[in-house]
Amino acid sequence: MRNAFAAELQALAEDGFPVVLLSGDIGNRLFDKFKAAFPERFYNCGVAEANMMSVAAGMAFCGLRPISYTIAPFTTTRCFEQIRVDVCYHDLPVIIAGVGAGLSYAANGPTHESCEDIALLRALPNMTVVCPADPLEVRLALRAAMQHDGPVYLRLGKKGEPPLHKSTPNFQIGKALTLRRGTDLCLLATGNMVAVALEAALVLRQEGLSARVVDFHTVKPLDEKALRDAFSRFPLVATVEEHSVIGGLGGAVAEWLADHPGLPGRLVRIGTPDRFQHEAGGQSYVRQCFGLTPQAIADRLRGFASQ
Hints:
Layout: H1 2-14, E1 19-23, H2 32-37, E2 42-44, H3 49-61, E3 65-71, H4 80-88, E4 95-99, H5 117-122, E5 128-130, H6 135-146, E6 152-155, E7 177-180, E8 185-189, H7 194-206, E9 211-215, E10 218-220, H8 224-233, E11 236-244, H9 249-258, E12 266-272, H10 283-289, H11 294-305
Parallel strand pairs: 1-2, 1-3, 3-4, 4-6, 5-6, 8-9, 8-11, 11-12
Antiparallel strand pairs: 5-10, 7-9
């Protein structure tokens, strides 16, 4: 995803957007081409993310389109006050790009994991939260965010995410995409867990259950039409995310469901539990620990479907 981000950043600058990249001391070689072509639009702000966010706000006030870019927890939780007061309070068009979100950097330990970022940022007024599922969606989401008049949190994976689209989808902020049709249950997935949800649907298919998979790339604002359709049509609806079950996509859908009583569908939230991971391991290992593999998700949903 980060390579797709760098490629689209270059394309936006070449298309005339007044984009400026602020880096939190990472990605220097990744953006070599961009720096060579637009040296006045790249600033390494160092390990000073709070200052970086305030600089981004100031640039936005001056008519530029700044993007703050670093590892997800450092551009969200570390500088939350600056996001809230400097960016969101003034409703400024700042894009906050968090790379390696969720468990992508799990090998570096809990300091580099971000399983609370969606919960924090979607609570802020004016903030839009977008979690693309594959490299193509990263490019489409970045371009859509650049045309959005307000702050956007762009939650990115790291690298190696598989392509999910055979052609360019009609990507719009706030509009979910149905990637697989099904009749027995529905999976609402976001970010890099959309690929895992599609694999879980294949496992379920082998066991006689037909699962629809919907790509909820936007967690705020939610696609309410898609939610109403899912909870009206399916007896079981599951959210799937690499984020805490508290406050992420599952939390947002639960809040929406509480405000729309009477729909027949039952909600199941699948995500990281409300605890820290104290064992060392990479993303795949921690996903196994948290039951976020295709087989584990299918096993859990099969149990709910049989009730």
